[in-house]
Amino acid sequence: MSSAKALGMPDKNVHKEFFNVEVDTGGNSFEVFAEQSGITVKVSENESISTALKAAGVKVQVSCEQGTCGTCLCDVTEGIPDHRDVYLTDEEKEDNDQITLCCSRSLTPRLVLDI
Ligand code: FES
């Protein structure tokens, strides 16, 4: 990855593989409004967004649950994500318009998601 970066290759053109990633998924609680579902959930300190949404009956697709595969990627309509994944590139994370629901959290008290 660093070699590709040194050669000036954009992150989006570099294929990455992760085999075991430890992601810190804990943090302060916050609120998530699932726009399409019309459901608001509280995400607790040691709970993921995907777990909170699933418990409220919102269908969320997950696979790795480590922030590596992108299966749980969701558009962010409002709020600022606290990106904990290794799936999104640095540039994509700076856009703050997508979030991985299995491990990322929120820097704002409320996130509005397109789900
Ligand atoms: S399930 Fe793989 S990144 Fe979230």
Structural account:
It is a single chain. The protein is built from 3 helices and 7 strands. With 115 residues, the chain is an alpha+beta fold. It has a single domain (26-113), classed as Ubiquitin-like (UB roll), CATH 3.10.20.30. The chain has a 5-stranded mixed β-sheet with strand order 2-1-7-3-5. Strands 4-6 form a two-stranded antiparallel sheet. Strand 1 and strand 2 (39-43) form a beta hairpin. Bound molecules: FE2/S2 (inorganic) cluster. Residues 62-65, 67-72, 85, 87, 100, 102 line the site of FE2/S2 (inorganic) cluster (FES).
Q: How would you summarize this macromolecular structure in one to three sentences?
A:
This protein has helices at residues 2-6, 49-55, 90-95, and strands spanning 30-34, 39-43, 73-78, 81-82, 98-100, 105-106, 110-113. It is of the alpha+beta class and 115 residues long.
Descriptive keywords:
115 residues, alpha+beta, five-stranded mixed beta sheet, two-stranded antiparallel ribbon, elongated, binds FE2/S2 (inorganic) cluster
Would you spell out the secondary-structure blueprint of this structure?
Blueprint: H1 2-6, E1 30-34, E2 39-43, H2 49-55, E3 73-78, E4 81-82, H3 90-95, E5 98-100, E6 105-106, E7 110-113
Parallel strand pairs: 1-7
Antiparallel strand pairs: 1-2, 3-5, 3-7, 4-6
The site of FE2/S2 (inorganic) cluster has 14 residues, from loops.
Strand tally is 7
End-to-end separation: 32 Å
Strand order, main sheet: write it out. 2-1-7-3-5
Q: Roughly how much helix do the residues carry, as a percent range?
A: 10-25%
Count of helical stretches: 3
Mean pLDDT: 92
Major pleated sheet? 5 strands, mixed
